[in-house]
Specification:
single chain; alpha+beta; SH3 type barrels; MgtE N-terminal fold; 3 domains; 4-stranded antiparallel beta sheet; 19 helices
Length: 415
């Protein structure tokens, strides 16, 4: 086992054991493997940097590297796609520890000999790792207590080296092991550029869920920096009310551009909410809810729910309308009541006919207070004709009621 700090600056000796260069950095190839292989070192000789392949190195330790041949290719080093310099690209940068659910700083990089080659095994994130780099070589041994993060748990490493095309992004599977709330909290600990890269590394659905956990300003900044098509795809996966909020935060031209790229169905849902003022119940509601006609039986309703291609995140209540092609709201049923009811009962026989609701023009504060006072998980928004226009969920209501400093700590209950 070695640390990169013990190798950098060490001599490179030829087959006759004569020093002719020094190790400037260690090069690894980053891909699908959890433990990237060392492909060689960057050697420094008379202000010239050149590559020495690991195949030509017979041994490497704290005393340096020894070569198997006296023949060397002194062609100036040029990085290839997927290659990462452990010293330049990794040391002193932040990474996301998926297992520990935290952002930490890399103070040193650990590599191990696996028999056939050297591989990156972990990141030393302890203060001892930093001391090892400060102390003279050989003074600070490997017997000191350290905290080494398993490299397999590195979800993302924030590096500003533009030539690193892979950017040490994890496969999306690593970050996707975390809840979107956790991904958002970790991403917001990084710089805006790296925050965008984290979201871009996720698939569309998880990226949308993660964005919904961020502030509207952060959402807009990320979508502003993304490729047009990808940004539109993520907007389509967001709840319509959240999509409206972030579009209103964007520059008008950018917002129109992304809106036009959205699929017809999702664009229609967003357009339906756009004409409501932000501080009204209409501006707070979402159009994602389940509505069913009152003449269905309980059993038929459950079958319909199972056959739905997509269901909203918030499905605690079912909203009962007058008939199949109507939006006139006549009652509501909690999902719990539906499941426990006799399958032969008609919805009209068991639905709650008296319920609280808001009008689209009501203030957002009033609607939120109503949800809070009656301990509701959602509140229907009903227009002048008695048609249901949308619902306001409790998490959106809490964002109105809670002070700004507490809003960021509020998990989305139905994500």
């Amino acid at each position: 086992m070695l640390y990169v700090s013990q190798i950098i600056g060490s001599p490179i000796k030829d087959a006759r054991n004569e020093k002719f260069a020094a190790i400037k950095d260690v090069l690894v190839r980053y891909g699908s493997e959890d433990y990237p292989p060392v492909v060689g070192v960057i050697a420094r000789l008379r202000r010239r940097d050149f590559f020495v392949s690991a195949k030509n190195i017979t041994a490497i330790d704290e005393k340096g590297a020894r070569l198997s041949s006296a023949k060397l290719d002194l062609t100036p080093f040029e990085r290839r796609e997927g290659e990462v310099l452990l010293g330049k690209d990794v040391l002193d940068n932040q990474l996301i520890d998926v297992d520990g659910k935290r952002v930490v700083r890399v103070n040193d990089v650990q590599i191990i000999d696996t028999g056939d080659r050297w591989r990156v095994s972990g990141a030393d994130v302890s203060f001892q790792g930093f001391l090892r780099r400060l102390m003279p070589k050989g003074f600070y041994g490997n017997d000191k207590a350290v905290e080494v993060l398993d490299w397999a748990d590195v979800g993302y490493l924030a590096t500003d080296t533009a030539t690193v095309t892979v950017k040490l992004k994890s496969s999306k599977d690593k970050l996707s092991r975390l809840h979107p709330v956790e991904i958002a909290q970790l991403a917001e600990s990084l710089s805006p550029v790296h925050r965008t890269e984290v979201v871009e590394s996720l698939d569309d659905e998880i990226a949308a869920d993660t964005l919904e956990e961020m502030s509207t300003e952060a959402q807009a900044r990320i979508l502003e920096e993304m490729d047009d098509e990808r940004a539109a795809d993520i907007l389509e996966e967001m709840s319509p009310d959240d999509a409206v909020d972030v579009l209103s935060e964007l520059d008008d031209d950018r917002a129109q551009q992304l809106f036009d790229l959205m699929e017809d169905a999702e664009r229609a849902d967003v357009a339906e909410l756009m004409h409501f003022e932000h501080d009204t119940a209409g501006g707070l509601m979402t159009t994602e809810f389940v509505h069913v006609p009152q003449d269905l039986s309980v059993g038929e309703t459950i079958v319909r729910l199972r056959e739905m291609a997509e269901t909203p995140n918030m499905i605690y209540y079912l909203y009962v309308v007058e008939q199949e092609d109507s939006w006139k709201l006549v009652g509501l049923i909690s999902l719990r009541s539906l499941i426990l009811a006799d399958p032969r009962l008609k919805l009209s026989e068991m639905m709650r006919k008296e319920f609280r609701y808001a009008h689209p023009s009501d203030s957002a504060d009033e609607a939120a207070q109503l949800i809070s006072e009656y301990n509701l998980l959602a509140l229907p928004v009903v227009d002048d004709e008695g048609d249901i226009a949308g619902i306001i969920t409790v998490d959106d209501a809490m964002e109105v009621l809670l002070p700004k400093n507490l809003q960021r700590r509020l998990p989305r209950l139905f994500g």
